[in-house]
Structure formats: C-alpha cells, structure tokens
Amino acid sequence: MRLANGRMTRTAGAVLAGVMALSLAGCGGSAPVQESSAPKQETQAQTEAQAAAGEPEELTIWMGSWWEDQIPKIVEAYKAVEPNVNLTIEALPVNGYVDKAVTTILGGGGPDILAVDVTQMGNLVDKNLLQPWDDQIKDMDLSDFAAVIEGGKFDGVYYGLPYRTSSSIMYYNKTMFDEAGVPYPEAGWTYDDMLEIAKKLTIPGEQYGVGIGASNADPSNVFLTLSPVIWSYGGDYLNEDQTECTLNTPEAIEGIRYWTGLYTTEKVAPEGAVNYTMTKDIMPLFIENKVALMMGGDQNAVEFDTNYPDLNYGYCVPPKAPSGSGGWLFTVPVTAKNSPGAYKFAKWFLQPEVLGELTVRIPARMEATNYGIWNDPLYQTILESAMVGRLSPTIPQWTDMQKIIIVELQNIMQGAKTVEQGCEDMAQQCNDLLK
Prior knowledge:
By secondary structure, this protein is of the alpha/beta class. The protein has helices at 12-18, 37-52, 71-81, 97-106, 121-126, 174-180, 191-200, 219-232, 250-264, 278-287, 298-307, 339-349, 352-358, 377-387, 398-413, 419-434; strands spanning 57-64, 85-92, 113-117, 153-154, 157-158, 161-167, 169-173, 208-210, 291-296, 313-316, 324-331, 390-391.
C-alpha cells in the first residue's frame, strides 16, 4: 500500500495536455423491449455483408459531454487501425442522459455503444435493454480491472465492461497536522485511528478534525464517507441477493453510530455538518485550514493545485476498509445496428496502452496507468483504492433509497431519533421500495 505525502505537481492544464498523445501500435422482471428480432437480424446481416464487400461500416457511440474535446483524437486513432469504419461519437450532457437512452432504445433506436455510469446499470438491465457480453470476452484477461467491473455483472452475466474508475482518497491538511504536532496518516490506519487523530486536531468552534456532510443536495458525497464506515463494521445496505435492506443489523447500526457520532458525541465534525455538502462547505473549510481530514477524488487535487497553490496538503488511501468505488462502462443496447463493430471497438479501446493514452478520466485497468499521464502518485493512490473498493447498490431503487437514508441520518444527527430507531426506519422504508 502506498501513501503519497507530497502534493501533486501537475496542474489541470498539464493533465489535459498529457492526453493529447496517442501511441498507435440476470435480469429483473420488467418486460423486454417489444420488437421483432427480424429487423435486427436483417440489420446485422447488412452490416456483415457491407464489411465483407469492403463498404464503409457505420458505428455510433454515446458518451458524456466531458469527452467532447477528446472525440477527434479517438476517431483519428480508430481510423488508423480500422480505416473502413465511420466512427461517430456523440458527447451528451449527463442531465437526462439515461432517460434519453431508455426512451430511444425502447423506440427501437439508439447507439451501438452506450457509455453508462455504474449506478445506472441496474435500471437498464432491469428493463432488458442491454446485450450480454459473456461470449465476447472469453479471450480477455479481466484480472487487472478495478472493482467497478462487478457493477456490470448481473446474475452472473456481464452486461458491460468499465473503461473508467473512481474511488475515494483521504486528503489531509498538513498545516493543521504540523501545528498540532500530529503525525500524518500511516499505511494500514483504521477508523479508530482516524477518530483519535480527529480529536487531537479539533478545537471546538475554531477547527475540526474531519469533514462530513449530510445534505440531500449532495447524496453521492454523503455515501462517499458513509459507505466505507458501514462496510468496515461488517454491515451493508442490502442482503446478498439485494432483496432486503440490512441497515437494521447490529453491524450496520454500529457503523452508522460511528459516522453520526463524529458529529453528535465526539464533536470532531463541523457544527453545520447536518446540512453541509462536501464541495460547497467542507472543501472551503479544508482550504481555510479549519478541517483537517476530508474524503474526495482526484478532481479535488486538481482544484487545489490550480487555484490554491499555497495550500499544504497530502493524500493517502482511506482508513483500512473497503473504500467507495464507481466508474463508467461500455454497454451495447439491444437495438444496436452494429453489435460486432461495437464489441470490436470496446475491446480495442480497453487495451491498456490505448486506454492509458486516450482516456480523459482515471482508467479502469491497473496496467493502463503505465501509459499517458496516469503514472502519477495521485492516480496510483486512487486506483490502488479502487482495485479493492466496493460499489453502492446498483438496483433501480437505489436513488430513492439514498434519500431515505440521508433523511434518517439527519434525524439521528439532530437528536430526533436514536441510532437504533433511525436505522430501523431506514430499513423499513427501503424494504417498502424493494417489494
């Protein structure tokens, strides 16, 4: 396990500049899409016939809007290895992205490849909108993919492979540590260690040891800090087959007791944490030397180095427990007009040397960090965390479950409910959604 105590030296501009170079070398019970297989088979036959005749082959991909500047480079690189393919990549805004995809696929259209956030996979698989990958990846070594790969697997069947991963890392304010004479976090540290450090760095009303936020306006960052704590106590959100909420088990209750206790009993979290978000509230306090520890991703380091060069900080893997992980996957809709071409492109892009040079986000394969800009302590630390990370539930109900859990966390933090009662109410309400 590696700890990176120094600040990242690359700025956001350098990070983006590094991407310029290219080295060429089980489903739910919803009804399936109501369409005849004949048109699809006819389209596939036409595509194969065109390829055999040497005619140009069309291939379309939908990705997030942040890929817009990189699209010409990807198209050029693929044209060099597949000159007979007319590749079209559309960069779409993330707002309404999945809704548009569902509507388009249900209408019989859509791209050949759909890039999907892991949290959106369950909804698409539940509606039977994605093709399985298993026959296409028999010859692939999947061993160096980050943990997000499991988010593409349902009932033992793969419906997507990840090209991007993300994971939480712990940032620490060196100025606060140094002034208090507290050693920086060490490899293998635990949540008990974190609490002891936070106590030493807390001066009530002036500064706090750890930053957490419980605002429903920022659910992903609430669970960025909450999930690893629950997992470290042996708890989880759902049972193994994801049919029942388990937040009322003793293990989950103790994890939630620890997390809410940072605010209620230990008082090592800022006074407004019950309504705080990480980005708008906790991060500014970290920059102002008023919060010593905060969870975040690589974008925080880019922000710090670009806009706050005087901030003295370090980063490391979170306390010894599975960290929260996520990412994006390539999927092939059931309405794809060129499925063979889709799988061929995806497997090409996922080659470590291609992925490392072309991706604009942290690659989902460890070997890809040997290429491009990714062989950097920051990204190595994040990927190290992501390789052993865990995913939040990928079921369609997870969005509504998050809202329920956060409301009950707020009730506990404000003293309206005991930890036990809040956890029991979480489980009951979530189970109503799962029926």
